Amino acid sequence: MLRLAPRLRITVPLLAIGLGACSDVADRAVAPTIAGNAASGAFAAFTPLPGSAACVAPPAAHADFATYQPLIVSGNLTQRIILDQITDFTPVAGSGGDLPDMLTQNETGPDAFRYIYHTHEVGSNGALTVTDMTTGITTVAAQQQHYEALDGIVWTPWGTVLFAEERSVATFRDPQVPDAVGGLLYEYDPATGQTVPRPAFGARSHEGLRFDSHGALYGISESTLGVNGSGAIFKFVPDVAGDLSAGQLYGLQVKDPSRTGRARWVALDRDAVQVNSDAEAIAKGATGWGRPEDIEVIPNVPMGGRRQDVMYVTSTSENLVLRLVLDGAEATVSNFLKEGVNVFGLNNPDNLELDEVGNLYVVEDNGPSDVWLVRTGGGQLSQATSAGRWISLADCSAELSGLYFDRTDSRRAWVHVQHAGGALSNDLMLEITKPRLTQ
Q: What mean pLDDT is predicted for residues 394-423?
C-alpha cells in the first residue's frame, strides 16, 4: 500500500442563496417550493434554488482548494473536500486516477461502510480505487491497460464490487473476451483481490447498475437507437444466484409506440450478447431511449395489496426520467419526470440516487451541473408532482457525478466533481453534511 501524506481537511459552510449567487436564464424556470419534515428525509426540507449557479473559475493553485466552495445551495449544509485528484488519485493510479465517476461503499461484511470504491472514466489504464475512510488512505483495487471509461459501480449482495466500461465500441479489447465489441462488466472480490470479466451481462456502453429484491441485475446501453446503438434497458437473471458467470439477459420491449404502458422482457441470445448486446437488443425488438445512463431501485413498494420493485432510469438526451414497476416477466413504464411537462430547467439528467426514505436525486451532466430533489411517494407516484434544485455546481466546465448517501448516516452524502475546470484539472470528492439542530 502506498501511504499518502496527510491532506488538509477543512469544513466550510456551503454558499447560501443571495443576490447574484444564481443566474436565472429563460430556460431555467423557478421550481415550486418543496416542503419537508423529519419523516421526509434528512436533506428533504429545503427551499429550491431559483436558478443554476453563476459560473465561477476554480482555484489556480492547489493550496487554494483548502477553502474552495464549488457548490451553491440554500440552507445550512456544509461541505469539505475529502479527496482530490492531485493529492489522492493520481499518486496512486497515475493517469488512470483522473476523472472519478461513480462510487459505492462496501455495504455488507465485517468492515461494512468503512471503504468507498471509485471508478475512473479515463481512456485507458482505468482504475477502480478504494478509500479507507478510517485512515483516509486511497489505494488501487484493480487496474488494467485495457480498462477504459470505467463508470457504473454497485456493491453486490454477496460482498463484491461490480464496475463497468462505458464504451459502445471498445478501443482496447480484453484479452479474456477478445470478441466483445463494446464495454464489459467486471467483478472485483475484496477478499481475494481478484477481478474477472462478466461478459454474460453483455458487451455495450454500460453505466447504471442495480439489483432488484429478487437478485436480478439491471443495466442500460448508454447509446441512442438509430444513432450509435440500442438505448435499451436490460435485465440479467443469473442461472445460479450470486454467480454472474452465466445467465439470461433480457431487453425491455414496450408495446405502445409512446414507449409507456405495459412492457415485457424479451430474451436475448446468450452468445450474441457477449459480442454485441446492442445489436442483439435491436434484432429482438427491444425499445430504445436517448442515452439511458443511471438506474435506481426502490424495493417492495406496496401497490394494490402487493409489493413490487420500482425502478427509475434517466434518458439523458431526452431530459427524461422513466419509472418502471417491475412485475416478473413484465413491467409498466411511465414518464416520471420530463422537461417541459412537470419540471422546467432539467438539462441532461445523468446520475440518480435515493435517500433513506426514497426521495430521488437527479444529477445533471451539464454546466452548470444541478442536482434536483424529486418526491417519489416512496415509489408510488407514477409521475412526479414536485421537483426542485437541491444544489448547483459553480464550475461550469465540470459536472457532478456519483452522488451517494452514506448508508450509516442519512445526513451525509458524497459526490465527485469530474472534468474540473482550470489549468490544474483537479477533480474532487466532496462530503456534504446536514448539521443536526441543537437546542
A: 95
